[in-house]
Amino acid sequence: MSGAARVIWDDALTSYDFGPDHPLAPVRVELTMALARDLGVLERVELAGCAPATDDELALVHKRGYIEAVKRVSVAGEPDVSAGLGTSDNPAFAGVHEASALIAGATLAAARAVFDGTAEHAVNVAGGLHHAMAATASGFCVYNDPAVAIAWLLSKGVSKIAYVDVDVHHGDGVQAMFYDDPRVLTISLHESPRTLFPGTGWPEETGAEGSAVNVALPAGCGDAGWLRAFDAVVPPLLREFRPEILVTQHGCDSHALDPLANLMLSLDGQRTAYAALHRLAHETAGGKWIATGGGGYELVQVVPRAWTHLMAEASGSPVDPATKTPESWQRFVRERTGETPPLTMTDGRNPEFRDLSGGYDPADPIDRAIMATRNAVFPLHGIDPLP
After folding, report:
1. pLDDT tens-digit readout, 84-106
2. 381 classed as catalytic
3. Given 97, 131, 169, 255, which residue is catalytic?
4. For residues 252 and 298, what is the distance between their CA atoms, to the nearest angstrom?
């Protein structure tokens, strides 16, 4: 199924660090890359480095004044609350510009590789900072690397790009930056804004000509309901839109163990979604697929396994979920974190898609969420919203 896959990595990507008490701890990507290396996944991809995004590249989506404000904060780590830096979510730290620009540069490197054909798929697990707005940091995100990459691709003449965001939080920053641009289809599946930050992502937020799509799922939704919603919304829209390139954000904070949210997915449900997006990249976008990480705050049990599965999926050689985690990695986890590592690459679930072919149940809150989205958006794409 897969051609050449590239993983973008530089050890300096772990310098994006809000401090020891912050949920977005860089150890999560350190453990991820160690697990992928010890399992042999990195032997099946091309590893490539990256350079920081330039000011001109960042300015494709961010205001120049904001970039300058981040640079000022970066010098001494002094807060600038007007730029969103110096809050509990986004603490100021010395070097924040350099660390954030490198993450954006890593996703740009992935975009360049896919655009110029040197890789069919490219992954930046340190990226996916989808909450950053044009002129302010938000939700642990300083520069919006998926949006920078999308804007760069548009500047190179790509005419249609689809962005699918499976983070538990609404992909509000990316949506906002392309809300009125029909060349970019943004699809976000997330916990309902009634119960989770950032409080946006209602089905009625439809953008230009239906270019924004939001599936707001109720707290407590697990594998079966989440996959049903994905299957009912994402494939039909991608098949109709036919993007030239598919960009995906893979926040794994939808997992039941994540401390900051309320969905109940398993690692196996997340892995099933990665495989589905891989298939859809080939079916609808000529195989051109750029994938990033995102949220994920269960740093040992979830993030490393989830994103190792993502990189393996992109390589065309998925990891058997029954695979044991290597003893070398288990030792590293204990030494690095003092925590007990997971022993296998599965949560022991076997989730499957359950489509709408048998109709929908108006008493089911998940089916109501599905139909709210289909009713709001499908007619704008010429698709019948009814199953």
Report:
1. 999 999 999 999 999 999 999 99
2. no
3. 131
4. 9
